[in-house]
Design goal:
alpha/beta, 7-stranded mixed sheet, 5-stranded parallel sheet
Length: about 425
């Protein structure tokens, strides 16, 4: 039974289904996003591989007789399994023998190096990606507007968010880290800064054990954060870094980028490339992005007060927050989030597409001044898609930092991020 203090996560329902379906479930995601807490709700026994008091002993057992580490009531949680990668094949063999579902839950905050000897796990392992908390999970969204219901063509009713601009600025800087949800503003900001410090000093070294220069890593993160939610080229980031470090090279930059992706810190938004214009007209670059806006805010030294004085940066970080929540909500309905931009000036901040071909077009705007131009872009893109034989989008939305949600006369929905849920 769930603890009263446990804030339900969107992933809970899927985890239950996956445990009924697969022999083992792997939950991946950044450190500190709540993987172990959520997994513990469902586990009957736990092995914490990273426990300092047992680490050496666990590694010795994993090397000599890994099957001993699997003994315990099921589902058995193997926390940070990648510390002993041999466990993967051991668990696969165990599942093949038992033919039972719901035997293990594995959590991992690092993608281990590729190993040709490690089985893919197809059919035995289900994979789930967990991110920091969305505003709905942290109880700061009213949840009056359901993404799933919109895809099912449910009526859209006017709604009102409890969040104002000042509160949104604070939520961006605080982030969706479970341990910071109820903390005072100063403590939450300190936690975000310490998280960035841990990334640059320690965590970036974990994917392959290569020790990296923490000052250079922080320089890279700063350059990256300044370009968040843009199509800035990596070569531009490199030139930005060279202003203070002329010896930095492209190989180092790409090594940092890869390592930060493997520890689930960087999560870019892929481009949507429908077959409507020549490939040279459609931008195919990923949008720069992090798994939580607080990472970019912390590395840039931002606070609620400073964001309120820089609305250009505020808008980019707000888009980052919205993309985080849209990803979490879309995952719940097996959807993907991408972006669209072409050389003719048409753009769409978020395109959500489902496995069955349904899709939705979303523009993200912090305030209401750009609402008309955002609606115009959405209608133009819809018209272009229709002319090329694409079906109508399920809905067109402007996701905002405003307080009021309503349906415009042109059929475009205006929805506050503080009203959205899966």
């Amino acid at each position: 039974m769930m603890s009263k203090t446990y804030l339900k996560r969107v992933i809970d329902q899927k985890l239950s289904l996956y445990l009924q379906t697969f022999g083992a479930v792997l939950i991946e995601g950044p450190k500190w996003c709540g993987k172990t807490t959520t997994a513990s709700i469902y586990a009957k026994s736990t092995l914490k591989m990273q426990d300092p008091s047992q680490l050496r002993n666990n590694l010795q057992i994993a090397d000599a007789a890994p099957q001993l580490l699997l003994k315990g009531a099921t589902p058995r949680l193997i926390d940070e399994w990648q510390i002993a990668p041999v466990l993967w094949n051991t668990i696969r063999s165990y599942i093949d023998e038992s033919q039972a579902s719901g035997q293990f839950i594995l959590t991992g905050s690092t993608t281990p190096p590729n190993d040709s000897n490690r089985h893919t796990g197809t059919g035995r392992f289900g994979r789930l990606l967990m991110r920091p908390m969305s505003l709905f999970e942290s109880l700061e969204s009213t949840g009056e507007v359901s993404l799933k219901s919109l895809f099912e063509k449910a009526p859209f009713n006017p709604c009102k968010s409890n969040l104002n601009i000042e509160m949104i600025a604070q939520l961006i800087c605080r982030g969706g880290w479970p341990q910071s949800i109820d903390k005072p503003e100063d403590s939450a900001l300190l936690m975000a800064r310490e998280y960035v410090k841990a990334i640059t000093n320690e965590e970036i070294n974990t994917p392959n054990g290569v020790v990296r220069d923490s000052i250079r890593v922080r320089s890279f993160l700063r350059a990256y954060a300044r370009s968040i939610q843009t199509l800035t080229k990596n070569t531009t980031l490199l030139e930005d870094m060279k202003a203070n470090d002329i010896s930095i090279d492209a190989a180092t930059l790409y090594a940092y980028l890869s390592a930060l992706q493997k520890i689930f810190v960087i999560e870019e938004t892929p481009a949507w490339s429908p077959n409507i214009r020549s490939r040279t007209a459609i931008r195919t670059s990923n949008k720069k992005g992090v798994v939580d806006p607080s990472i970019a805010a912390a590395v840039l030294g931002q606070t609620k007060s400073s964001l309120l004085k820089d609305f250009e940066l505020f808008g980019l970080l707000f888009e980052s927050l919205c993309i985080r929540d849209l990803r979490i909500y879309s995952d719940d309905i097996d959807g993907m989030v991408s972006h669209y931009r072409d050389d003719y000036g048409l753009e769409c901040d978020a395109v959500i597409h489902l496995n069955d071909g349904r899709y939705a077009l979303i523009e993200i705007k912090l305030g209401g001044k750009e609402e008309d131009s955002a609606a115009k872009h959405l209608l133009q893109l819809e018209s272009l898609l229709l002319s090329k034989g694409y079906p109508l989008p399920q809905f067109k939305m402007i996701l905002t930092g405003g307080e009021l949600g309503y349906l415009r006369n042109d059929g475009v929905m205006v929805v506050p991020i503080g009203c959205l849920k899966p």
